[in-house]
Write a structure and sequence with these properties.
The protein has helices spanning about 10-25, 30-55, 60-65, 65-95, 100, 110-140, 145-175, 180-190, 205-210, 215-230, 235-265. By secondary structure, the protein is mainly alpha-helical. α4 (about 65-95) runs antiparallel to α8 (about 180-190) and α7 (about 145-175) packs across α8 (about 180-190). The radius of gyration is 22 Å and the shape is globular.
Length: about 270
Amino acid sequence: MQYASVNHDFSGRRVLAIVLRHLYLLRGSWIRIAEMAYWPTINVIMWGYLSVFLRTNSTWVARAAGVLLGAVLLWDVLFRANLGMSLSFLEEMWSRNLANLFVTPLRPIELMAGLTVMSLIRTIIGVLPAMLLAIVLYQFNIFELGLPLIAFFINLLVTGWAVGLGVSALVLRFGMGAESLAWVLIFALAPISGIYYPIAVMPEWLQVVAWLLPPAHVFEGMRAVMFDHVFPLGHFAAAVGLNLLYFSAAAVLFHRVFYIARQRGLLMNLGE
């Protein structure tokens, strides 16, 4: 038996071929290009505003023991709710099982309901151990927030579901090249949600944008409960109203995109 000879010499042309292969891939996906600059920009904005706030409020951290840890835990609820929704949908696409599902009598609204339940389960599994660990390691018990914690938890869940449904619709429309949006879109909310600092530290024009987001009201409400021991009904009502609006819009978008995908045969051809 004869074997093809192997050229062990280093070839710059083969290296160039690999580079060109990935450059062509980037050229065909604006999402990948934008993502390169996205994460450094998000980090600079978020931690920059935190630095500005701490520089002018040096006693804030000492006065608010546990508030940053509480913010981290509640942010993870939002993050996990989004991932629980979008990853459950992506797993169907990765396994190319979406078309098989809709050969059955399954309706889009039933798929959305199933993804929502899975998101809740994934979120509880992901967040509950961290909350218990915070009690053991840092003597911080977020459950002491009581009923406000339930209000915050539900609102962040619904926000995560809205983002996850929107991401799923975009992936269904544009293919797997858009799957990184599962992480990109949710982190776009972080710098303007007031997770670690009050909304007031941001420029006035950005505050207007922040107040249009349910998480901004949730995290401001959390600080009001921890600092002033008062449940802010105004922030709660605003978060509920905005969540109803965004979740409804995301559900309509998903249903509409699914209809378009079915009409165009995209369910059978979901690739890059």
